[in-house]
Give the backbone structure.
Amino acid sequence: MNKVVNISDAISIIKDGDTVALGGNTLHRAPMALAREIVRQRKKKLNIIKTAGAHEVDLLVRGDCVESVTAGFISYETEFGLAMYYRKAVEAGKVKANEHACYTVMCALNAGKINVPFMPVYGLKNSDLINANDYFRVITDPFTGDSITVVKAIKPDVALIHVSECDEHGNAIIDGPVYDDVLMSRASNKIIISTEKIISPSQIRLKQDRVVIPGFLVHAVVNIPRGAAPCSQPGKYDINKKVLSDFINNKDNDGLMKYLSDYEYADKKMERKNVL
Amino acid sequence: MMTQEAKNVHPADIMIVTIAKLLHDNETVFHGVSSQLPMVAILLAKKMHAKNLNYLNIPGGVDSNPRNLLSYSSAGEDIYNNGCAVFPLQEIFDLSMRGKLDVAFLSGVQFDKSGNVNASVIGDYHNPKIRLPGGAGSAVLIPTVKRALIWRTKHDARTFVDRVDFITTRGNVDRIITPLAVFKYKDNELKLEAISPLTTIDEVVKNTGFTVNTQGVRVLDYPTKEEMLLIKKIDPKGVRYKEF
């Protein structure tokens, strides 16, 4: 079944208030083109799920699309520092920060993946995080009577993942670090993939053991070379420091509009070429 | 009065050599995001006394031999490539849960004398003055890793406080290394173990918000010529200075 669609049709799958998981990690292989389209389509009140996020979370918050962010770490790392749009929105009470450890987001997704209501986490102890957050509870192990902390399951409505190669059926290969993308693809109800390159189904079959997301789990595929830009894509391109710097420094609405329009051509290039 | 030696040494290099010497051969050692300094220290240890150290990281490259370190990230492709295996981050956490991760480099924003770490907020948790990047790895690793090595590139009384605003975690903190000093966690409290040759005991005491026992405190070594040559070979572009 041919699942290749335009970016606007793919993102129209997302409804206001959805829980959306984003693949990649910090400034690496984030699904940036898909995130930009979310902002363009003015989606609202999304609940974002990420282990360690940076520019994509910052953009979605700046675009006024976000109600809450569930993550272990939100920052651009050392050189570009804290995600200021995210941070200011949390401090102003506009966005709820569901603070997790990166690992408890993984555990919550694992629970979602196997359809159980929560996941025990051995290492979460001695922490004020447990009482401060409703998604952590301490329960009694029914076998030993010991206490154990558990985290509530997370089942995203949609996962957005940018991959290296994909065929028209959605069978996807990820080059380089996979981070938590495979886990997200299992726990989420629907998967939208953007890909650097579409390859043929017969080429995919020659690389069977490298396919990490089987097509039968995937709802939509969008052909977007450079779909992670201005973040990095392994083996292909590094971050664009100027774009990130401008995004961070040009704080007014014009700055956001310029950022979105500067990428409009690249994000939709393959649609114009009518190449699927 | 600074010696000729002192004038040319960056605190990062003293910290890197100090940290490298805290790592042992054959240990499993992990660092996370924003960790350029421990990353270089791990690679230095592997060139010196810890050739069989198992270097683990977020992208999942085991024992990666990076050719070109990224300046802006310690979670990227550069430290995934040229490894001997792939061991993803979730597996590294799982390993620590099982009690088999030897060392983790972690951070935080506030530390108090009893070993509490705050990486979450300044102010009230639900209405914070500042929302910090978050629990990241520390919240589950500090209680489970065999030794947590914490490093900070700032040492001031806002970092080393009498009482943290929020306890993100507490546990197996072994040492805290800063540009001024090394603290060791011993007998349920943080004790001053050593100071940088670039500073004085008075400066350390002045910049620490809890009382420190200054007895038996030694002075750290400057890096040797050989150590500096190795560091420059590992990190010719100076990514280790990015955290300062």
Q: What stands out?
A: The radius of gyration of chain B is 17 Å.
